[in-house]
UniProtKB/TrEMBL annotation:
Protein species of origin: Marinomonas piezotolerans
Protein name: Sugar ABC transporter substrate-binding protein
Entry annotated with the keyword Lyase: no
Molecular function in Gene Ontology: carbohydrate binding
Key words of the record: Signal
Amino acid sequence: MTLSGYQYAIEDRLSIEQRVQNAIEVDSLWQGPVLGPTIAPKKHLVFVASDLRNDGVNSVVKGMTESMEGLDWNLYLLDGKGSKLRQSAALNRAIMLKPDGIVLGGIDAKFHEDTIKTAQHFGIKVIGWHAANEAGPNPELGLYTNITTDAEEVGDIAALFAIVNSGYKAQVVIFTDSNYSIAMQKANRMASRIQACSDCRLLAIEDIPLDNIAAEMPTAIAKLLNQFPNQITHFLVINDLYIDFAVPSLTASGIAAEDLPKSISAGDGSHEAYRRIRSGKHQLATVPEPLFMQGWQIIDEFNRAFQGESHSGFLAPVHLITRNNLENIVLNVGVYDPDNDYRMAYRKIWQ
């Protein structure tokens, strides 16, 4: 598989290590908005979920629900159940409910562009969460704003961590899913970073669909270990799920634990990922999203939209979770929740 890459000047080691350290550090300083309109009264929102079985979607909903406590707002959930057909039906149902605002929760806005335009026609504000590749407003798709982390920055930090962890001699295999453009953004950036490191080597790129990981990963891992014996230092993956299904094959390989590839995930942050990182086995790091905080941000962005103001422009900084900073994870629910007083900051804006 061939990836189109970016060209970088090779940074000095001090600069690279500082970037990695900045991503690992727990920043208690609120970097989001401090000014905005007071909260609008009596608003009705509908959250159209890609799949309510998805922990990420559920955590965003939890953040929204928490932020609405004490407000005269209500939230109705519709479940797309992982099917584009069902998601389309749910979005049409949402419009029929005549809400003030609709959230596209992990649903591809491009696929539903015409339906979103219909919502706009009825004066409904639409905000995306992971509904497009880029964060921020997207008038062409009908999105007041889209909330997500910077996919290329996430891929960059994951690759840089592998480079530093290997002593600038990383031998890498990348796992991605070409069905998703955001996954390819991450994979492109990771590949470019590895290729820009003179003593590193990109051994292979494995294109395995997320919905077929369970079936394909055992064969892929066996093939890679045979093709590159004692060579692979790191797996770079676009989602922790790849590691979930790599571990059994790695364990059964008979290779000593210290000689097995170490994995770094460019996005997700699951229960299993945090368990592996804590144990020090198989996974070194993940780049999670602040899901509860993003739920609060959605409410703040809607409040701005309802009152004719522009979006806040806030983009959460990329954070790398390693064994040394796991204390910043709400372990009982497996969510990265920044200790930056974002709840207080938003309440202060709305009061």
